[in-house]
Amino acid sequence: MTTTQLKASKPKNESVATLLAFILIPLSGLATDIYIPSLPSMAKSLELSDTHVQATLSLFLISYGISQLFVGSILDSFGRYKICLVSLLIFALASLVIASTHNIYLIYLMRIIHGITTGAIIVAKRAFFVDVYQGDKLKHYLSLFTIIWSAGPIVAPFLGGYLQTAFGWESNFYFLALYGFVMFFLELAYSGETIKAYSDFKLSKITGIYVDMIKTSTFSLGIIMLGLAYSMVMVYNMSGPFILEHDMHLSPVIVGYSSLFLGLAWMTGGFISKGTLHVYFYKKMAINLGFQLFFAIIMLISSMYISNVFTILFFAFLIHTSAGFTFNNYFSYCLARFPQNAGIAGGLTGGITYVIVSLISYAVVSLLPATGETELSYSYTILIIASVLIMSIIYKYRTASDTP
Fold first, then answer.
1. Which domains does the chain have, with CATH numbers?
2. Which residues does the UniProt record annotate as the domain Major facilitator superfamily (MFS) profile (predicted)?
3. Which of 219, 273, 320, 364 is the most buried (most CB within 10 A)?
4. 3-state secondary structure string across the chain
5. What mean pLDDT value characterizes the chain?
6. Per-residue pLDDT tens digits for 271-296
């Protein structure tokens, strides 16, 4: 079906297709955070170590990140609609496999498939808005992306906590399967191909653009800043449930509420970032990292005298708010480096960021397992100090054109 045929035969479906696109935007957060309250139960049920089940998060993030590096060019060359449809169907089937098996290696494989298909779906839906809308309306919809995306990490663990308590860890993946199948049939009924002109798939040209971008030091270091910021969230996601359930003997429902609370912290950081656009970039980033390091050190000191769910969430909220602030600023910073190739820059930024997050967060929880608030505060402190060092290098190598 061509774009012209789609517009001629289904003009009334544009608003429904837009709504479906927004429903799919939070899929990456949903696919990771919905089973966070179930991690301890998964480890017990599968008779595996904490590290083995935590790897299911890392494998998803790696495959999700890598897929974004290439899927944009594929979608430009072969269209959005069919690839998105097939990806939704495969995502749903992979969820059913995870829910019905106790083989950790098969689960690993399915989580990799989850990451690849989620990357294709998300990038396709981002492109949908550029294909369909223009001008102020496009700007309006794009401005909602961060807020809509934040809904996944906020709602997913809250829902997952109740599913875990009522039906067990497998129910999270049955829910993802249902979500995938429902969205597949809705997309089939109401969406269609929106690409206006297909591009030639020339790998050499695309690779050349990637290399030029990566050679730009402030761009590459900015992506590392993004990875360090989101790693703070992922370290908690991978460790927090075990601390709250094993060490503090709290229920998965409480774990879900806690993750919801920290999801709001990330969103709060994004709103603060938007409210400080007029402040000089390097000044506000230095102040933010200073506060973040202060919060982590106070958390470390206080944990030696008092430690409970309230102190963990209090300090984690402050640190995650600062991380959200860093992420929002540096994502815009990286995209602004290459306005002539914003699409590729966005895919490269998002892709490498998730690869970095998966590697750093898994390394931190493996080398420094967070069995309590003290260990968690050490993890935060290490990541923040690394952020300060990277930030100082970016400041050193900045140029007039790099300053937002």
1. 12-197 (1.20.1250.20), 202-404 (1.20.1250.20)
2. 17-404
3. 320
4. CCHHHHHHHCHHHHHHHHHHHHHHCCHHHHHHHCCHHHHHHHHHHHCCCHHHHHHHHHHHHHHHHHHHHHHHHHHHHHCCHHHHHHHHHHHHHHHHHHHHCCCHHHHHHHHHHHHHHHHHHHHHHHHHHHHHCCHHHHHHHHHCHHHHHHHHHHHHHHHHHHHHHHHCCHHHHHHHHHHHHHHHHHHHHHCCCCCCCCCCCCHHHHHHHHHHHHHCHHHHHHHHHHHHHHHHHHHHHHHHHHHHHHHCCCCHHHHHHHHHHHHHHHHHHHHHHHHCCCCCHHHHHHHHHHHHHHHHHHHHHHHCCCCCHHHHHHHHHHHHHHHHHHHHHHHHHHHHCCHHHHHHHHHHHHHHHHHHHHHHHHHHHHHCCCCCHHHHHHHHHHHHHHHHHHHHHHHHCCCHHHCC
5. 85
6. 888 788 788 889 999 999 999 999 99
